[in-house]
Amino acid sequence: MTRAEAGRKGGLATAKKHSPDFYKKIGQKGGKSTADKHDKEFYQGIGQKGGSSTSEKHTSDFYKEIGQKGGSSTARKFDKDFYREIGRKGGETAAKNRNNPVKSNNG
Asked: Rounded to whole angstroms, how far apart are CA atoms 42 and 71?
C-alpha cells in the first residue's frame, strides 16, 4: 500500500467516525490559531500568490464567467435597496479618495 493509499484509507475511516460539525469546529480552531500567529501582510501574501497562480491558469473568459455567476447569485439574494446602499457607500468612498488621495507604493 502506498503512502497516499494509506492516507486515503485513514481519512475515510476518520470521516465515518465524525460528523460535519466536528470538522467545522476543528477548522475554526485551526483558523483561529493561524490568525493568532500571522498578521495582515501574511494573508495579503498568500492571497496574492493564489491570485497569481489562478491568473496563470485561466483566461479572461474564466473571470467573465465567474463574475457573471457571482452577480447572478447576488441578484437572487438581495433587493434593490441592497444595491442602492452599496452604491451610496462606494460613492462616499470615491469622494473621500478624490479629496484625500493616498500615494501608492507603486509610484
From this structure: 29
Distance of alpha carbon 64 from alpha carbon 27, whole angstroms: 31
| pTM higher than the cut 0.85 | no
Long-range pairs, 91-96, Cβ under 8 A, ≥24? none
Q: Say how far apart CA 44 and CA 35 lie, in whole Å.
A: 13
State phi, psi for 78 to the nearest 5 degrees. -125, 155
What does each of the 107 residues of the chain score in pLDDT, given as a tens digit? 999 999 999 999 999 999 999 999 999 999 999 999 999 999 999 999 999 999 999 999 999 999 999 999 999 999 999 999 999 999 999 999 988 876 655 54
